[in-house]
Request: fold
Amino acid sequence: MNRIIKFVRIAFVSLTENKTQAFLTMLGIIIGIAAVIMVLSIGRGAEKLILSSVESFGNRSIFVQPGGGEQGGPPSPTAIDKVKYRDYLAMQDLDYLEDVAPILVYSVAITYGSQNQNTRVVGSNEYYLSALNSGVDEGRNISQNDLDLSRRVVLMGYKVADDLFADRDPIGQKIKINGKTFEVIGIMEEQGTRFFQDFDKRIVIPITTMRTQIFGVDYVMSVLANVKEGYPIEEAIDQTRFFIRKRHSIYNPQDDPLKDDFRVVSQVDAAQTFQGIADVLTYSLVVVAAISLLVGGIGIMNIMYVSVTERTREIGLRKAVGATAKDVMLQFLIEAIVITFVAGFIGISTGVGMSFLISLILTEFVDSWEFIITLESVLAAFFVSVSIGMIFGVYPARKASRMDPIEALRLE
Amino acid sequence: MATKKKSEEHIIEINNLKKTYYTGDVETPVLRGLDLKVKDGEFIAIMGPSGSGKSTLMHIMGFLDKPTGGSYHFEGVDVSELSDDDLALVRRERIGFVFQAFFLLPRATVIENVMLPLLYQKHSHGHDMAKKALDSVGLSHRLDYLPTSLSGGEKQRTAIARALINAPSVIFADEPTGNLDSKSGKQVMNIFQKLNEKGHTIILVTHEKTTAQHAERIIHIRDGLIESEEKVKGRINYSDGDELLK
Ligand SMILES: Nc1ncnc2c1ncn2[C@@H]1O[C@H](COP(=O)(O)OP(=O)(O)O)[C@@H](O)[C@H]1O
Ligand SMILES: [Mg+2]
Reply:
């Protein structure tokens, strides 16, 4: 035990004696560990963000989205027009659903006085806000009347309103959307960032107005609905699927999701889809980090081999004064572990610092982004770096331990 | 003046000792059947031309190498059966080595170099022991120097202190004065004589007649065989004058 402490001290001393060389030796590990920490931190942040996005929908929400396929996978972009406006209208008659809201999003230019900006406009109905667990902060919501008459009225995210009107009362103001005059009827409550988009920078108009005057298409991006209290959600999803399938004339008795041109998902499924995308990103970065660690480990092994050869005499001498093969092995192994441990420490610090910087940048775009470093990720990083020292230190250490003291001492 | 206890027992007893190196199909017989007895507390010199097998013999006697034939008894124990770890244990506890090229660790200070063997032992007073060892070779003023800033003689005296730290029964010295000027060489030989007087058995390997004259007995070897041996007459001895070291 005492000896191990001494070996550790010796290894630390020899590290500090040759800082530049030591740093270069450790670089691969430092980069790999820093990458691991960053990946885990950003992964956790994204996960948190997705969870809070999903929780912002009611837990009885279901979505009808275009594109078939497994629920976990991303929908096909070519299927974008498969869920029709007519489907939404028909869904209003399903007795187990309520608050059925269509969503159609389009990029537009809005003008107020001399101010111009581009933003995303959502065409929907009076249930849109409640589906998002949100409401109107000032003014009023879209009404059935607005929809029936395709009125040019608009609800605004508070950020858009702040931008355009500054201190003026926004209610009753007239703005132009793609050149057409709209009246501001309400400001929405703060909604934050959901699914990586800032909902407070959006505006909402009646879907009827959108279809007739802004974006004339026969499809919608998705339909949101709440399953009525007391009706099982799974059952509602299945029934809705059969309903749409029938409307789309899809013969699919095997219930093969690939044969459908739409999907019906719950908020949990939606979370899984986004989580799936985040996981793919995380795993690919983990692979990059692993490669860097492998390269770093091989680098350490290489340096240790060189060191063993350079220190042939030292090894011979140590054996001459009574070191056993095990002692020599232990010393070199500890040296490798100390190198990777220090590299791990630097890597973790760098990774934490970088993650923090990245989170600062991300909060510029995504308000609710959180900077998260878990204890587990730090411990895992230390574990990984020490393991690398052990794995890649063993062969050089064994070479050192097997060195014949005579051969070593005969060198002149 | 310490009185010398000379045991009649043989600490080292070698019979028909052989060492042959095998490189591929080539056999190189280096030691070809040596007989040698060394008494406990004796100071002997092994002399012979370069390549005659002196270092090989010393390495075997010092448990660094194993013979390929014959027998070697150390303190009455047949050591041919010992494992590598057992040999390391004997070196650690009973043997001290001094080499021609010093073999000091360049980045460790003098006292750290002297303490090196203790790394492999359970000692708590290492620092004091190292100081004492350095004191006995006249280097107590150089404790924190690095080897590069020492003279050759000082380096070799550091190496001797290192060999002393485990209070060895036998000290082996392979051409210890080979890299030194004559004054430093004399100093080093003086130290060996004093250590011998304190009871350490000294086995000195050299090819220089005058260096060998410091021992009590000289073994001449040639081509891996003992050619002759002689008691030293007119031994060079500093122990009376002692002008070099206090
Ligand atoms: N590993 C080895 N393989 C073959 N021959 C060796 C080996 N080591 C030493 N020798 C040979 O053994 C002989 C004796 O070497 P050594 O004991 O060092 O002699 P000395 O110390 O008397 O000069 C030399 O001829 C040397 O070349
Ligand atoms: Mg020699």
